[in-house]
């Protein structure tokens, strides 16, 4: 039996996770996976109900699960509460509690959505990138302080933290095109100089078959737009990865399309779309569920050992897009024949049943 904890979170989070659970339930029945689901609170919803963005009961449920499916957290409703209790602290906290140090973010350009991307179609041909973002170190977790007139946030990394995420990235690259790009800011930051030294050693000594490239983060941001098809696997630190993957979402056409998986050394993984809570469209039934459904596919592949079911879900989503199904964010300016969250999920389910 595989227990999946569903953390709907805030904004559109409950809507897109509900869509993904429908798909997971269908896949569980079709492929005999024995999935069970349990709902728990995180983020602003948890703060409102329990006074904490990450209640102890949520942590306990997640630790006892096979995998966690997360929607999104945050929104302007909670902007004025103290930093330690804001919704985002729930997300950072569950990653830390579960030791989820490697965030996998695949970016693939579907030809039928070329018009949804701001890049020219010829730039998107052959784009298939896997970004590995270090998730539990760096500036998001370093010492910080603020006064009325000054503030600081500290970026810290150890060699061990860098080694383990580079190994994850290298192993994944070995199963792909055997090319890896490490992104840092080694011309300015000491943490980046350590990052480059450790990454160079790990790749040279443990994965000599890999083609290795080192890029400064500003150059990487430029090359993601000028030559995106050249990249295979990218690995980088926490904040750089956060920014670069949001940029990379424009290669696919919308942030609503992209999934992610957060993994550690064994234990449950956490799966979520890369988009935020989108409070401006929450409750309207128009959110794109693709990123969450594709995250559910990653959940089956990495945590449930069900690659066939994962591939079937991915094919069902791609098939829906290729057949012309569109949510509002990818339908194009002025389009009127787009589908809402539920109707788009219905198309995916129809494709899945036909697999």
Walk me through the structure.
With 355 residues, the protein is α/β, with parallel strands linked by helices. Helices cover 42% and strands 19% of the residues. It contains 12 helices and 12 strands. The strands form 2 sheets. It has a 10-stranded mixed beta sheet with strand order 2-1-3-12-11-4-5-10-8-9, sandwiched between helices. Helix 7 links the parallel strand 8 and strand 9.
Annotation keywords:
Isopropylmalate Dehydrogenase, single chain, 12 strands, alpha/beta, 355 residues
Topology:
Elements: E1 2-9, H1 13-31, E2 35-40, H2 43-50, H3 56-63, E3 67-72, H4 87-97, E4 102-108, H5 121-124, E5 128-134, E6 144-146, E7 151-153, H6 159-174, E8 179-184, H7 190-206, E9 211-216, H8 217-226, E10 233-236, H9 238-252, E11 259-263, E12 269-273, H10 290-302, H11 307-322, H12 341-353
Parallel strand pairs: 1-2, 1-3, 3-12, 5-10, 8-9, 8-10
Antiparallel strand pairs: 4-5, 4-11, 6-7, 11-12
């Amino acid at each position: 039996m595989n227990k999946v904890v569903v953390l709907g979170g805030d904004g559109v989070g409950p809507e897109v996770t509900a869509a993904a659970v429908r798909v997971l339930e269908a896949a569980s029945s079709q492929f005999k996976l024995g999935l069970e689901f349990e709902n728990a609170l995180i983020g602003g919803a948890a703060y409102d109900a329990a006074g904490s963005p990450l209640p102890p009961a949520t942590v306990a449920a997640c630790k006892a699960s096979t995998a966690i499916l997360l929607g999104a957290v945050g929104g302007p409703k909670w902007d004025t509460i103290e930093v330690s209790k804001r919704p985002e602290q729930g997300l950072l906290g569950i990653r830390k509690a579960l030791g989820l140090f490697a965030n996998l973010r695949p970016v693939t350009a579907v030809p039928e959505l070329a018009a949804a991307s701001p890049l020219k179609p010829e730039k998107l041909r052959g784009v298939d990138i896997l970004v590995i973002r270090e998730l539990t170190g760096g500036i998001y977790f370093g010492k910080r302080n603020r006064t009325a007139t000054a503030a600081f946030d500290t970026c810290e990394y150890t060699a061990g933290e860098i080694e383990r995420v580079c190994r994850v990235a290298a192993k994944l690259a070995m199963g792909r095109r055997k090319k890896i790009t490490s992104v840092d800011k080694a011309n300015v930051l000491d943490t980046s100089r350590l990052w480059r030294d450790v990454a160079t050693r790990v790749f040279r000594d443990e994965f000599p078959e890999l083609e290795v490239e080192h890029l400064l983060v500003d150059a990487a941001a430029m090359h993601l737009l000028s030559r995106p098809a050249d990249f295979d696997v990218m690995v980088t630190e926490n904040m750089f990865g956060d920014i670069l993957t949001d940029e990379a979402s424009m290669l696919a056409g919308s942030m609503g399309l992209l999934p992610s998986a957060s993994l550690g050394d064994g234990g449950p993984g956490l799966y979520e779309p890369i988009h935020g809570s989108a409070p401006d469209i929450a409750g309207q039934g128009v959110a794109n569920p693709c990123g969450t459904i594709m995250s559910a596919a990653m959940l089956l592949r990495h945590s449930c050992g069900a690659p066939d079911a994962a591939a079937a879900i991915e094919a069902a989503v791609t098939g829906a897009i290729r057949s012309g199904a569109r949510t509002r964010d990818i339908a194009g300016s002025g389009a009127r024949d787009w589908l809402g969250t539920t109707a788009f999920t219905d198309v995916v389910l129809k494709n899945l049943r036909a697999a």
